[in-house]
Amino acid sequence: MVFTDIATRTYNHNWRLDPIVRSLLDTDFYKLLMLQMIWRLYPDVEVTFQIINRSRSVRLADSIDEGELRAQLNHARSLCFAKKELIWLAGNSFYGKTQMFSPDFIAWLADFRLPDYELSRADGEYQLRFTGPWTHATMWEIPALTIINELRSRAAMKDRGRFALDVLYARAKAKLWEKVERLSRLPDLVISDFGTRRRHGFLWQRWCVEALKEGLGHRFIGSSNVLLAMDADLEAIGTNAHELPMVLGALADSDEALAATPYRVLQDWRALYGGNLLVVLPDAFGTAAFLRDAPDWVADWTGFRPDSMPPIEGGEQIIRWWRDKGRDPRTKLLIFSDGMDVDAIEQTYRHFEGQVRMSFGWGTNLTNDFRQCAPFPGDGLDPISLVCKVVEANGRPAVKLSDNPEKATGNVAEIARYLRVFGDTGRKQAPVTV
Amino acid sequence: MVFTDIATRTYNHNWRLDPIVRSLLDTDFYKLLMLQMIWRLYPDVEVTFQIINRSRSVRLADSIDEGELRAQLNHARSLCFAKKELIWLAGNSFYGKTQMFSPDFIAWLADFRLPDYELSRADGEYQLRFTGPWTHATMWEIPALTIINELRSRAAMKDRGRFALDVLYARAKAKLWEKVERLSRLPDLVISDFGTRRRHGFLWQRWCVEALKEGLGHRFIGSSNVLLAMDADLEAIGTNAHELPMVLGALADSDEALAATPYRVLQDWRALYGGNLLVVLPDAFGTAAFLRDAPDWVADWTGFRPDSMPPIEGGEQIIRWWRDKGRDPRTKLLIFSDGMDVDAIEQTYRHFEGQVRMSFGWGTNLTNDFRQCAPFPGDGLDPISLVCKVVEANGRPAVKLSDNPEKATGNVAEIARYLRVFGDTGRKQAPVTV
User: Fold this and answer.
1) Across the interface, do B230 and A2 touch by the CB < 8 Å criterion?
2) Measured between beta carbons, which residues in chain A are less than 8 angstroms from residue B163?
3) Staple partner for A199: which of A205, B32, B34, B403, CB 3.0–4.6 Å?
4) SUPFAM superfamilies of this UniProt entry (chains A, B) (predicted)?
């Protein structure tokens, strides 16, 4: 007998909108950690974030309908934190610490809404900007990225038959499960989901997280996605991002202050957080410059997250620096999260085994790897390198140099100035795929 | 195209068990309030709870398989409170109060498991008893009842076709929605779901709660079911039950101490709770006796929950008593929760409108009214009057007199003694249907 749930079916085909973002917790944990610091230390800074599509061959406005994009962005703006979400943030322990978020910060979150956006289109590309207090504009990063990425997936699957879609997901599941089987052979692997921003879609990310939980057991330590962490009683994982040095760099009123910015960020961070959250993200203005000028106390931090160098090369550089500083790398932590996939995870794991503690943040290649899965033509399901970066702070341009010039952002004059201040040592062009 | 989710289908037909109780929060809120009091004041009392089927025409062992019953009870014993559930209990506010449950109590809950059970069968009936510390045995009441009631529903629906089941639920939904429409015409109605213990099934209770939320808006104030309250961000509703006077009555070492028990319970309660939780349940040993001997301060409590008299008669009796004590009933609260359905709610509402604040707890007739809904014969879906009562405390028999001798429990000799102590005034036989 063929059974149809008529009420559900009728409700479904009358949907005004199938929301992509249904909760303000559907974001990366590091946004909340950073938000608390920004709220406490920099409540008056005004910033602009902007969507940047680094995949120049893909023109987003060709596949994504502007009306749908506005509808999804507007829906995200209608959200506020649910009572039970705030209770969980207040009561859960994060990184072994209770009350990670202070009661006054939680009370402030209760009234939080995403600020307005500016959307225009030109030459087949969208310009999407978020301007407002840093405390507000920053929270657009992840929802803006997930909305665009999922709208792009939906467009690629539109008008496809149910059978084709069934085969698509069957292949994607089989593909992911093979990766899980390979990773399960690394006995001391420590890995987490970092795939929110570039995911194929929310439901697919949830499937991936459940697959890791089932297949990797204790090797899978949690998700950067706060909503999924809450719903599945997983650890929420994350520390901080480039926006901290980028904003503080833009606010620096001299070259000397700019040169000190990377360490100023760490001091701010340390005022609020400790333990395994003391992880350095060294590459905003070049890792070599960062290490060269770093005060000795930076070597006391728990670990580093190299983010724009090949993982083995980047890790070796930091291990050498720890040794130079007289620290034992075996007590230290390296977090690898830049475009990792199973091959790179295996190589990196084997290379550093016994030398240093390691943790892997698995992103785009976990939650958006549909390559060779579609039984229909087109590249609409290939992941793109989309970011949402801070471009201005208090009206001054923000810059990221990165170890890979392909990942640099900012205007040409400012980049030149930053290169004068920090130098160009160790920066190397490499293709950016995800 | 007919679409089948093969993995789900295959998983489904290989289920070892479809659990009825999946969370220790799937219980009534008053159990948690009472548990905290028991844990704090009576940690060393040993009790026995027992399932009592007051519907003598129904023999449970005829329809419920013993193996299935044991499997469900064993599954409930495997549960512990999830981390996010404890976080919610600790962080949510209840009745407008934060930290209703103290941190040491929450910490104790983290290790809580349901104790063992004793199950035997004779003459087509099960004997199901729970013996252990009061702090543990008490928590069996609701899961034991929901398991038996849902197993009975499942047995009645076994081997029915999908079409028949579809019609069954269509009728039940239509029936409930008519009730909702009638209730929505009472402008100042205050109503909550009290239907956990006798529900048709968990999923059906959830549907009912969602229907009340949708159809009654602000008139619907919440659910006694803690899990549903958490999941739907509703208020958790409930105060206390007969087990408190029944256990303390059994422990009383003289007739004088027994006579003082109903007020001793209130003093214990008041040591922990306040405000709208100061609700008297007066009928354990007869409402007339309770009111006759009550100290004046009892009239300062927020309200009463008459539980075994016709609602108008029971309410009038309490209002008269408030007036005799010089209190204004319009500032007082009456909670009606004994076998209410729409007719009785409408009559009671209209009768007391303007005289007293009212709140309705809607139980069995909300979550288990399938009368005239099944397109197949049999009375297996009719609700039965099943309770789980404390029968012994520290080896001494526990007694409930009630205002309706049909609802009395305890052995004959002890009932006679209680009647000597409290008298028989105002008690009146009435049929018990749910």
Assistant:
1) no
2) 1
3) A205
4) Nicotinate/Quinolinate PRTase C-terminal domain-like, Nicotinate/Quinolinate PRTase N-terminal domain-like
